[in-house]
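re: ur question from earlier - yeah i can do the single chain one, its not a big deal. heres the input i used so u can compare w yours
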Amino acid sequence: LRHGPLSWLNHDSLVIGFLSNYADKLRIELGLLEELNKKRAAKSILAVLPQEHVNLSEYVDYKLILDIPEWLHDNYRPPVDVLFAQCLGLFASLRRQLKPDAPSADGKIQRVVSQIGFAG
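and the output i got, formated as tokens:
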């Protein structure tokens, strides 16, 4: 985050941090959010947390508390995190009157899945 990806951020960017349930990882993640906030690298920062066990008000603009039990390992989080990210992208596209199922008005971008023939 400190080199290439940080250079992509601008005054219109939303940074989403999917924070860990584990204290050692969480300290590092909070440090990154603090750095982004101090540099004013993005318009907004959203933290997705398993539980509300840390005060993030000085680092983030928004937070989403998942209320996941402490015993649930971070390895089981991706389906929940991806679902949130996909829905955010979908609704942000719709709000801007974009067509997520037809992203290219001039036909340059086509569906990845094409007709599949079965050997038989």
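The chain has a mean pLDDT of 86. not sure if urs matches, ping me
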